[in-house]
Amino acid sequence: MNSHNRLARIWAHRATLDTLVRRDLRVRYARSVLGYLWTLIDPLAMALVYAFVFGFIYGGHGKPGLSSSSDQKWASTDGVPIVLFLVAGLLAYNWFSNVINESSRALYAERLLVRSTNLPRELWVMRVVISKGIEHLLSLPILLGFLVFYMLRGEVSLSWEIVFWIPALIVQFILLTGIGLVMAPVTALVDDFARITRIGLRVLFYVTPIVYSLHFLEAKLPEGWGWAKVLIQLNPLTGIADMYRAGFVTEYGPDWMAWLYALIVSLAWLAFGSWVFRKLEPAILKEI
Amino acid sequence: MAVEWKTPEGEPVIQVHDLGIEFLKGRKRNLSLRELVYRRRTTYEKETFWALRNVSFDVGRAEAVGLVGANGGGKSTLLKMIAGTLLPDEGYAEVTEGVAPMIELTGGFIGELSARENIYLMAGLHGMKKETVDARFDDIVKFAGPQVERGLDLPFRHFSSGMQVRLGFSVITQLDEPIILVDEVLAVGDRAFREQCYKRMEELLAEGRSMFLVSHSEGDLKRFCTRGLYLSGGTLVDDGPMKDVLDHYNKDLDAGIS
Q1: Where in the cell is it found (chain A) (predicted)?
Q2: How many folded domains does chain B comprise?
Q3: What ipTM describes this predicted complex?
């Protein structure tokens, strides 16, 4: 079956995809008392922890005069309050890591259903990407909340570039679908793979400009380390996080290079993921 | 209610050609990375067997086919390949019509959701539109029996396994698909329910559907099927009228071949 047929089949089953996503959300939000609040509390708590560690302990923004960089406030985060800067990257990273963790079990956890229905198997991955994507959308009010808070205090201003949230969502959706299509079959076949990705995710958090900005890193890099910057720009999450910040980071313009890389790398993942998934599908069906 | 066929009359709805599938023998589910890397140095290549090989046949409209053979003969594997839930390593199984698979009936249900939600979910996963489920909801519930009816809004995990199978059967038999695959589901359930199932299957057949039945019960096979396929050791040994195929199988059994 070629890619065109596969796409047509997925499209034909979009109603089923809708059913699966609704089921996920219902199970997630119906079971707990606090329901939706967890979607907010979880990233909020993480954001405050990181802001405390990197903003106040390492950043030295406690008492004015104590810090060495007090002449330039929020230097490590492009002149934006660290909580705001960090939440923008953190929410995108959360969607990413949720999908990686969840999609690695996407086929195995649903093996009874996978074995008893003849749906396009890609749906089991897309369903994870979409459900987690909706949770991501539902967590964006945190970012909006901080944005409004700092705007009211006059510390940031908002520009029309806030519309870049839309391409950010689209590019990340493409990226996650691609990676998910690799994760789901490979983890079902190889046990150790899930452990490797857990380590990878942790590393990724720190090589993505989430708690620091790329400009800040660039300034800190020793002579001749320019390639390190390109490497980080090649990380698609760099471009995606930058898109989320374009609306309120005023000191610098958008990092177009990172954006372009993000798009290209995401599309490459999608192509690679579809290929891997197609190759491994017969083996997976035998194993689960 | 008549069945709607997409395939022109006279043409086969299921074409199985030179079908083969190879499994790893005595393998745990997962490979470790080490095994994957060193795979070539082990005897990996030899640890496989063909669960099915060189199987070819066609099935037309409104044919009721019974699969016979000893355990491990490849019956369930063949059924799954027709359902599309296993993919062949050789040849193909082309199915040109929709399939209602009665395989792993309770697999799709979620314990946390109510029976009502589960009915919509399961029917939706098998391609039934929401309006259709609305229209047939009462029939589905009624067929599943009064216990299910009373517990419609309870979490599904409170249902007994028998009730779960009833509901699964009830949902799948309401699908409009022209091909039905039945994998020994009739063995479960109490006698009253089994009778009900027989009746329902006869109705479905009377509407002109094609059916595949895997069963070890000679009675069931003779009751529903006109044509028999006899699988042994993964190959198709016999294909003919149900009665002849059963005789062949029984003769092999007595002679200790199968």
Answers
A1: Cell inner membrane; Cell membrane
A2: 2
A3: 0.80
